[in-house]
Amino acid sequence: MAEADLDAVIRQTARAQTKSVMAAAKKRQAVWVARSAKAKDKDTKARFRHLAKSTILNATATAKRLQNSAENAADAYARAMKKAMEEPPPAKESQKKSQKKSEKKPDKQAEKKPAKKKKNA
């Protein structure tokens, strides 16, 4: 992965996160289904089944949002890198720095303290 593009890494990470979100949601759904099976009251069973169904629906929506966000981020990165590759490289900085240093030297000397006056004896 040393030479992988960052946009591919972003997409791969999002897929892994989506899988883990869905796995956790399935475990949570199994808990609600087990509770509904153990419930003695008809209303309680219906409530637990509803919670199990809602868990999967909400987790699916969350996973889709996560995936969409990652896709948008990866696409934005790819576009930015493509644009950066098309731009010309900046001018050499060493020439700019030497010009700035030569301009600043006289200013610094001018700001120095005035020479001391000689004492007349």
Description:
With 121 residues, the chain is an all-alpha fold. Helix content is 79%, strand content 0%. It contains three helices and no strands. It has helices at residues 6-38, 42-86, 93-110. The radius of gyration is 33 Å and the shape is elongated. The chain starts with 5 loop residues before the first helix and ends in an 11-residue tail after the last helix.
Overview features:
121 residues, mainly alpha, 0% strand, elongated
Which sequence of SSEs, written as H and E, runs from N to C? HHH
* Rg: 33 Å
Q: How is the biggest beta sheet arranged?
A: none
Which strand-content bin applies to the residues? under 5%
Mean pLDDT: 84
Quick gist of this model?
The protein has 121 residues and is mainly α. It has helices at residues 6-38, 42-86, 93-110. Helix 1 (6-38) runs antiparallel to helix 2 (42-86).
